[in-house]
Backbone:
């Protein structure tokens, strides 16, 4: 993946760039909006990581300008302003996701990966499979290796979210946002307890464990 | 409109117009009165002249007998209702068409023709002694009385349209200015609620004084908006300037952790420092959020939401965590939609804070109940536990910023949770009430003004809602924005 990072704080910028490069991504790092505009219009990137407050051209204006010029590259905003209004402003300007500072790298990496692989068209499947697990989206029934698994509605939603994104890391906050529609970070380990309940139903009776914990980042489902 | 009528009647333009009508009526009455008195005086004057002239005529009689004959002759062709002639001669005989009698009630005229009937009416009399007898001539003042009636009628006729016109004019001007006043009031209400975009914008047909006030209100709002924008800019600058170093410390800690030769003590220290950093960020974010909420601008994003469903969702979310920590969490809802105008994220934070507080500050084995209830239009969200509770003397203190009870110093938390709850409640026009649940603590969020138009029918089975997951946060936010733009 080719990524552009626009961050005026040197320490944060190089931390992001180094982390992403360690993951094998190609990263261009610039400190000003003007440089970012130049690079983004002359290259093709998979994702733009843009700080809201940068010199010359601020992040909002940069993304608005790019969108105005027909550039649809997914944008992840980095923001110091965490209020709902600020987030809405950012998303209205053409941003696709946001991350409030201070953040941990795992969160950033997972969100960038999710943006880059965002499906262009929503496919309406009627069933989902991962390994020997089968989910029927119409009857809301789940079975694994021919054995029925009873799930509560929210457990079904959580499992569906993970299976739809199999192989990709989903962080705690990403799960809270998508499954529970919660955009703030509760201080209780809510996601952990829900995942653990899901595991006792989906993984415990079987030898192969499908739901994997990615240390310091989140969860992933894999066959 | 009818319930506004009393307000209209008490309004200034109406009172002014009414005062003018009353003043006009009083002046008309005075001038009519003066004209009437003058007219009566002149009629009386001419009647007195007539009487004197009549008397002079009778004085010309050469003897008592001639006078009596003259009086009789005159009286025979004169109606006593108009002119009374009475001559009582020296030997006591009466001539004329009436006798002027006198008793304790005053004078009375007795007719000599119609069986001594008493003659009614007001008369102007002149009496003189002639030829040893007494001659009385009296003229009826009925013309004067007719004049008085005519004057009253003219006065009433001329005043009636004035009063009607004045009254309707007063109502018209009162309602006209009431509209302008209510437009100013509506703009001020919006500003009070935090919408500093609100403007009166007086139109050219407004009365000059109200337009002047409206214009000044607009100027005030404009200045206020500018200063709030400055404060916002300053706080976002501070946010940026402080969060960036926090982020940097995190980066440095991360770098340090990746150095190869580190003792396990050093790794532990790094982890501790990282946790402290998280707490710092949490306090900072909370303080910033409280300030932002108190600016009131988040009201612009308000949309009707189902508080019953929201509270149910949060209880479901926290149920397992509560169970893992040895407490039970249950939800008692209305089983139907309970709509309030609000921000889903902020009200979610209220629920999260109250539930987390209850889990954190109760002994193991405690029961926590979240509930939503509605009585008439008043919606109450409550979280009740049967733990050790908080003494009533500390109820006000725990709502203060950064206040931590001695007993809670060892448990994690910033001391900002309840003040965040209070500021969010205030933003939603709701009150936070702490009370003793004997035993335990009950925290109630009482929504004072709930729009009844939002109350809808019974919700479909709750389970149905669980699958209507919105696929991404972005879509939700986009949707919200479309509503407000």
Residues:
């Amino acid at each position: 993946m080719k990524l552009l990072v626009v961050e005026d704080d040197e320490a944060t910028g190089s931390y992001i760039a180094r982390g992403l490069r360690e993951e094998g991504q190609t990263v261009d790092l610039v400190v000003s909006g003007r440089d970012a505009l130049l690079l983004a219009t002359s290259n093709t990137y998979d994702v733009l990581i843009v700080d809201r407050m940068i010199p010359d051209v601020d992040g909002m204006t940069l993304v608005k300008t790019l969108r105005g010029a027909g550039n649809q590259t997914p944008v992840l905003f980095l923001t110091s302003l965490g209020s709902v209004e600020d987030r809405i402003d950012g998303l209205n300007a053409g941003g696709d996701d946001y991350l409030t500072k201070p953040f941990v790298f795992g969160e950033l990496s997972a969100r960038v990966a999710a943006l880059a692989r965002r499906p262009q068209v929503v496919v309406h499947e009627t069933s989902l499979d991962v390994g020997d697990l089968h989910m029927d989206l119409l009857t809301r029934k789940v079975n694994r290796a021919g054995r029925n698994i009873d799930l509560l509605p929210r457990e079904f939603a959580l499992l569906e979210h993970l299976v739809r994104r199999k192989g990709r890391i989903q962080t705690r906050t990403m799960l809270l946002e998508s499954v529970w529609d919660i955009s703030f970070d509760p201080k209780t380990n809510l996601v952990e307890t829900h995942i653990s309940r899901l595991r006792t139903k989906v993984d415990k009776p079987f030898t192969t464990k499908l739901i994997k914990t990615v240390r310091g980042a989140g969860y992933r489902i894999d066959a | 409109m009818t319930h506004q009528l009393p307000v209209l009647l008490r309004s200034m333009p109406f009172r002014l117009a009414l005062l003018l009508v009353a003043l006009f009526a009083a002046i008309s009455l005075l001038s009519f009165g003066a004209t009437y008195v003058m007219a009566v005086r002149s009629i009386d004057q001419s009647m007195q002249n007539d009487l004197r002239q009549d008397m002079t005529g009778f004085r010309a009689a050469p003897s008592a007998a001639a006078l009596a004959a003259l009086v009789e002759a005159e009286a025979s062709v004169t109606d006593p209702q108009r002119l009374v002639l009475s001559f009582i001669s020296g030997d006591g005989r009466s001539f004329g068409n009436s006798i002027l009698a006198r008793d304790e009630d005053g004078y009375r005229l007795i007719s000599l023709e119609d069986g001594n009937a008493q003659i009614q009416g007001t008369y102007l009399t002149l009496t003189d002694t002639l030829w040893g007898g007494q001659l009385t001539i009296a003229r009826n003042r009925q013309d004067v009385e007719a004049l008085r009636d005519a004057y009253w009628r003219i006065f009433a006729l001329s005043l009636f349209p004035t009063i009607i016109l004045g009254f309707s004019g007063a109502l018209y001007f009162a309602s006209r200015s009431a509209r302008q006043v209510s437009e100013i009031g509506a703009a001020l209400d919006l500003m009070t609620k935090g919408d500093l975009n609100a403007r009166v914008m007086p139109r050219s047909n407004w009365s000059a004084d109200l337009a002047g006030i409206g214009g000044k209100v607009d100027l005030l709002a404009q200045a206020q908006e500018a200063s709030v924008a400055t404060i916002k800019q300053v706080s976002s600058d501070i946010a940026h300037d402080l969060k960036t170093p926090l982020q940097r410390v995190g980066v440095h800690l991360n770098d340090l952790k990746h150095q190869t030769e580190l003792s396990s003590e050093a790794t532990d220290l790094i982890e501790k420092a990282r946790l402290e950093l998280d707490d710092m960020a949490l306090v900072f974010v909370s303080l910033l959020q409280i300030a932002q909420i108190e600016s009131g601008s988040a009201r612009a994003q308000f949309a009707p939401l189902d508080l019953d469903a929201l509270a149910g969702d949060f209880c479901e979310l926290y149920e397992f965590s509560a169970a893992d920590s040895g407490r039970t969490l249950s939800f008692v809802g209305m089983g139907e939609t309970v709509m309030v105008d609000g921000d889903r994220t902020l009200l979610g934070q209220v629920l999260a804070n109250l539930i987390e507080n209850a889990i954190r500050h109760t002994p193991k084995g405690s029961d926590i109940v979240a509930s939503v209830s509605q009585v008439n239009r008043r919606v109450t969200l409550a979280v009740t536990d049967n733990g050790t509770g908080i003494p009533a003397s500390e109820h006000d203190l725990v709502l203060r910023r950064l206040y931590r009870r001695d007993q809670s110093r060892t448990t994690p938390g910033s001391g900002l949770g309840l003040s965040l709850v209070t500021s969010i409640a205030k933003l939603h026009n709701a009150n936070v009430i702490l009370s003793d649940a004997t035993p335990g603590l009950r925290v109630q969020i009482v929504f004072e003004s709930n729009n009844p138009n939002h109350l809808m029918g019974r919700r479909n089975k709750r389970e149905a809602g669980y699958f209507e997951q919105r696929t991404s946060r972005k879509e939700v936010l986009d949707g919200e924005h479309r509503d407000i733009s």
